[in-house]
Each structure stands twice: as structure tokens, then as C-alpha cells.
């Protein structure tokens, strides 16, 4: 993605007005729309809102702003008020909607009779507010009197209102200064939200199987960066050394947890040896300058690497969101956030876990006191019983699944998954049972539940994400009794407050830091996938 500052300079340098208009429409507008759309999706998630089904707008002589709004919101339907003098633009806009597979519903108004127009607008908005799921009314374009009428009527009908502006003004009408566009959304309770082009910065880490090479890239401040590669194709010794360092890292950290000898310096020193084999020169140089990373887009073959901990050397703060190496935003069904929360608390094998029964009793007791939550408890006596449990919940999908017990990361799909009370494993191969009604979130409070196998596609976290689970929360290391309890209780309290899974995760990490200290191992243990 090109840098908007550079594009702005190029735009201003164009002298011909027609060429300048075309350059904005064809080159800049798609970049701006992509950035605003990401912010719009984030706005929906953090507020647990449904996406808007219908956009109501009015046309002016310049279609740029209307097209920008449509590409930002991506509605299913557009209701368009226009006057006869805008017929040509109406035809162009109808064609644009057709290419975007958006239903276009034109409503012709009178050029002079504002009283008649007001009645028409009110009738149309009243009708569609009853027929359509959710409506957003745009008051940016068109004649001021029409925008004013739409705004007044929309407010009286308790519909949401939107307006696009520019923090740095307009180069000319229809061409806002690139990178400074702002989308305002006003709710009926008068709360106004402004969505600006604050990019979601992503570090992308891909694995080229054919060449046994790790590829580093980044989307940062609306620019795309190639950050070098690390090849293991012709160096079996380096591959073995990397595997050895990763195994040593996990073995020694797990041992320090068991023997209560963990120190933050140990974590840093062990992870530094892994980093020295993994990071390219370009990546190191980039990370020394750029600290605001929001997401790690990581291939499954590389999920065994503790990336979040390696990045601590560059003062990149937690939490970092891991997502599979594709953009999930388009596929997330945000409407699920508003349904009743159905939570399943599943207990698996507790063999050898100190205080397992006491922990489960405490959590069950805590859950029963939360009368606002619909919580079911289930004992996973066998993998078959666990599959049956998920099968019984296909008609009314579970919102959140919390598992506590043992997890196992083996070398095959059959030996990787959640250990049930009889010792059988709800494995990667069993995860297809989730596909018909995937839970929104799975929190697997089990030792090493987020681990994978280096350079292979064996990962329980990725297995459930592939079946449609929106968010997976697991762990790198062994778990401890008290931190587990603090994390789970804080997470559930945040869910009760209708917070998102990501915000609940952040709250839980904050609770761990407050209770056990900023550098306690518990604050580096949990891994977040998928939001």
C-alpha cells in the first residue's frame, strides 16, 4: 500500500483539474477506503455492534465522497435520494453499486419543493427502518437543505447518522487532503464517534515451504515493507540448532515455573538465542525504529515460535494479536456479538495437576454467582463425550468455551489436542465437529495449549480457527494455580460488562501484572489468536 503522504504530494503537483480528480478517484480513494474500513470494523468489534445493512445517502455533483463512504461501510443496500439534475450521477452510481453487488434503491426528489421532499424522505426512512436490519444515514453530500432534512428526520426516527470530513480541509470539493479523512458516526443518544486513518500495523511472517524460507513483511503506517528473509534450505545444522534452541527455551522456562526459579533475565537470554537465528537484518533495523505493532500475521508452520516474547527485545508491548496469514476481518460475523452469551465451562483431565478439583470448584462457584451469564458446566470424560457435547450445541451455538485441564502438543494430529478424563484426546482430527456451529471464542486454560510444531501444520489453535472459531486463547508454558484463577475470573467479569474478547484479554493481562508484577511469567504465558 502506497504512503498517503507521498500520494498527497503527487496529487498537489498535478496541475490539470481533470487529471487531479482522476488520480484521487483511481489511486488515492481505494487506499483511504481500505484504511477507514479497517477502523470501521474495529469500531464495530469494540462496541459489539452489527454492521450497517443499509446506507441512506444523497448525491451531489461529485461522487468521490459518496463512493468513499460506500467502500468504507460496505452495506448490502443503498437508498439514494437525488434530484433530476443529478440523473447522470445517479446512473453512474447505480453502475458502481452493481459492480460492488450492492442493491441500489434510487428515490427521485423535487428540485424545488422542499416540503414535498421532506414528506418523501420521512416516508422512505420510516418504511426502511422497519424493513431493514440496521440503517446509517449520510448527511455529507447533496444540497444542504436535503442533507439537513435527512439528518433531522433520521434523528427523530432514532437512526444513526454519518458524515465524512477532513481534518486538514479539502484540496478542492470532492478531494479531501489524503490521510486526514474522518468518518463521524452519531448514535441516537447523541454519542459521536470519529474514525480516523490510524492504521492497524501488522508484522507478517510467512513460510515458503518449497524453499524452507521465512519471509518477513510489514504493513506499517499505510506502507508495505519487505523486511528480508531467513533461509534454512541449505543449512540442516542451522535448522537443527533453531529447533534445539526453541526446545531448550520451553523446557527451561517450564522447569523454572515448576521449581519457582523463573527470572525475567532468563526469559530474555533464552529468547535472544532464538532471535539471533531467526531475524533478518532488515527486520531488526525496522523494529529498532517502529514500535507500534498491533498484529502478528503468522503462518501455521511458524506458530511454535514465541514471537511475542522475541519482540520484547524491541520494547514492543503486549498484548499482540496473532492471526493466521490471511485477513480475517471480512469473514467475522460481528452480528454474533449481540446474541445471548452461552458459556460452556469444560473440565478435562486433571491428573497430576495440584489443586485441580479445588480450582474447578472455585471457578464453578464464581460462575454460578454471575446470574447475567448463561453458563453450563460439562465434564469431558472422553473425547467421544466431548464431540457429543459440541454436536448437541449446533442449533444454538456456544458463545464462549472455557476448557481447564491438560492439553497435549504431539507430533501428529491424533496426538495433539485436549486430554479428556479417561486419557483420550479431543484432537485436531475431532475439530471438524465445530464447523457447523463454531463458538465465538475458545479459552483453553491448559499447559502449552497454544504450542505448535516448527515447520509443520500441527497446531490445535489453528485447527479450531480453521473450523470457524473466531478467537482462540491458549498458553505457551505450564500454568500455575493462582494466576490461572485471576486470569479466568477477570476475563469473565469483563465479558459480563459486554467487553470484547480482546479487551477482556487485555484486562486479564492487566490483572496478572497488578497481582504478580510486570515481569511475572504469567504475564507472558497467554497467547491471543484471531480478533
Task: Reconstruct the topology from this structure.
Elements: H1 4-13, H2 17-46, E1 54-58, H3 64-73, E2 77-82, H4 87-99, E3 103-108, H5 114-131, E4 135-138, H6 144-156, E5 160-166, E6 170-172, E7 175-176, E8 181-186, E9 192-196, E10 202-208, E11 213-220, E12 223-231, H7 236-258, H8 264-278, H9 281-289, E13 295-298, H10 307-310, E14 321-324, E15 342-347, H11 356-369, E16 374-379, H12 383-391, E17 400-408, E18 417-419, E19 425-427, E20 441-446, H13 460-466, E21 471-475, H14 481-496, H15 501-516, E22 526-529
Parallel strand pairs: 1-2, 1-4, 2-3, 4-5, 10-13, 13-14, 14-22, 15-16, 15-17, 17-20, 20-21
Antiparallel strand pairs: 5-8, 6-7, 8-9, 10-11, 11-12, 17-18, 18-19, 21-22
Structure overview:
This protein has 15 helices and 22 strands. Helix 2 (17-46) packs parallel to helix 3 (64-73), helix 5 (114-131) packs across helix 6 (144-156) and helix 7 (236-258) packs antiparallel against helix 8 (264-278). The chain folds into 3 domains: 4-196, Rossmann fold; 202-324, no CATH class; 329-529, Rossmann fold, CATH 3.40.50. It starts with a helix and ends with a strand. The radius of gyration is 26 Å and the shape is globular. The protein has 531 residues and is α/β, with parallel strands linked by helices. It has helices at residues 4-13, 17-46, 64-73, 87-99, 114-131, 144-156, 236-258, 264-278, 281-289, 307-310, 356-369, 383-391, 460-466, 481-496, 501-516; strands spanning 54-58, 77-82, 103-108, 135-138, 160-166, 170-172, 175-176, 181-186, 192-196, 202-208, 213-220, 223-231, 295-298, 321-324, 342-347, 374-379, 400-408, 417-419, 425-427, 441-446, 471-475, 526-529. Strands 10, 11, 12, 13, 14, 15, 16, 17, 18, 19, 20, 21 and 22 form a 13-stranded mixed beta sheet that branches. A 7-stranded mixed beta sheet has the order 3-2-1-4-5-8-9, with helices on both faces. The protein has a two-stranded antiparallel ribbon with strand order 6-7. The relative contact order is 0.08.
Amino acid at each position: 500500500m502506497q504512503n498517503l503522504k507521498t500520494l498527497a504530494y503527487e496529487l498537489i503537483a498535478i496541475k490539470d483539474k481533470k487529471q487531479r480528480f482522476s488520480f484521487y478517484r483511481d489511486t488515492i480513494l481505494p487506499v483511504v477506503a481500505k484504511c477507514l474500513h479497517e477502523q470501521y470494523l474495529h469500531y464495530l468489534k469494540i462496541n459489539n455492534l452489527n454492521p450497517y445493512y443499509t446506507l441512506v445517502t444523497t448525491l451531489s455533483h461529485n461522487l468521490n465522497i459518496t463512493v468513499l463512504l460506500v467502500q468504507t461501510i460496505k452495506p448490502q443496500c443503498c437508498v439514494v435520494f437525488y434530484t433530476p439534475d443529478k440523473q447522470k450521477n445517479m446512473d453512474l452510481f447505480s453502475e458502481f453499486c452493481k459492480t460492488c453487488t450492492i442493491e441500489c434503491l434510487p428515490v427521485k426528489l423535487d428540485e424545488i419543493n422542499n416540503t414535498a421532499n421532506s414528506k418523501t424522505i420521512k416516508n422512505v426512512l420510516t418504511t426502511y427502518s422497519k424493513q431493514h436490519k440496521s440503517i446509517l444515514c449520510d448527511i455529507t453530500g447533496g444540497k444542504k437543505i436535503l442533507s439537513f432534512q435527512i439528518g433531522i428526520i433520521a434523528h427523530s426516527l432514532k437512526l444513526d447518522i454519518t458524515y465524512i470530513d477532513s481534518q486538514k480541509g479539502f484540496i478542492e470539493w470532492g478531494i479531501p487532503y489524503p490521510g486526514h479523512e474522518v468518518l463521524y458516526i452519531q448514535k441516537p443518544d447523541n454519542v459521536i464517534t470519529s474514525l480516523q486513518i490510524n492504521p492497524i500495523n501488522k508484522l507478517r511472517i510467512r513460510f515458503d515451504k518449497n524453499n524452507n524460507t521465512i519471509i518477513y513483511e510489514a504493513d506499517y503506517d499505510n506502507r508495505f515493507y519487505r523486511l528480508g528473509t531467513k533461509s534454512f534450505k541449505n543449512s540442516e545444522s542451522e535448522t537443527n540448532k533453531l529447533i534445539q534452541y526453541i526446545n531448550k527455551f520451553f523446557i527451561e522456562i517450564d522447569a523454572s515455573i515448576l521449581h519457582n526459579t523463573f527470572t525475567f533475565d532468563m526469559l530474555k537470554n533464552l529468547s535472544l538465542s532464538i532471535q539471533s537465528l531467526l531475524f533478518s537484518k532488515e527486520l531488526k533495523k525496522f523494529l529498532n525504529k517502529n514500535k507500534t505493532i498491533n498484529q502478528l500475521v503468522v503462518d501455521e508452520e511458524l506458530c511454535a515460535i514465541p514471537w511475542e516474547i522475541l519482540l520484547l527485545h524491541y520494547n514492543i508491548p503486549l498484548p499482540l494479536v496473532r492471526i493466521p496469514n490471511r485477513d480475517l476481518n471480512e469473514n467475522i460475523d460481528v452480528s454474533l456479538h449481540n446474541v445471548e452469551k452461552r458459556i460452556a465451562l469444560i473440565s478435562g483431565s486433571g491428573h497430576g495437576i495440584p489443586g485441580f478439583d479445588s480450582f474447578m470448584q472455585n471457578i464453578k462457584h464464581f460462575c454460578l454467582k454471575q446470574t447475567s451469564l448463561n453458563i453450563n458446566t460439562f465434564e469431558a470424560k472422553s473425547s467421544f463425550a466431548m464431540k457429543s457435547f459440541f454436536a448437541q450445541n449446533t442449533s444454538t451455538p456456544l458463545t464462549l468455551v472455557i476448557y481447564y485441564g491438560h492439553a497435549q502438543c504431539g507430533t501428529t494430529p491424533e496426538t495433539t489436542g485436549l486430554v479428556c478424563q479417561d486419557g483420550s484426546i479431543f484432537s485436531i482430527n475431532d475439530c471438524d465437529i465445530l464447523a457447523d456451529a463454531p463458538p465465538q471464542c475458545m479459552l483453553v486454560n491448559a499447559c502449552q495449549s497454544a504450542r505448535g510444531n516448527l515447520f509443520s501444520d500441527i497446531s490445535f489453535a489453528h485447527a479450531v480457527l480453521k473450523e470457524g472459531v473466531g478467537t482462540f486463547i491458549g498458553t505457551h508454558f505450564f500454568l500455575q494455580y493462582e494466576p490461572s484463577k485471576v486470569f479466568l475470573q477477570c476475563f469473565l467479569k469483563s465479558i459480563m460488562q459486554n467487553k470484547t474478547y480482546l479487551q477482556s484479554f487485555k484486562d486479564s493481562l492487566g490483572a496478572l501484572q497488578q497481582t504478580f508484577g510486570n515481569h511475572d511469567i504469567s504475564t507472558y504465558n497467554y497467547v491471543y489468536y484471531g480478533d
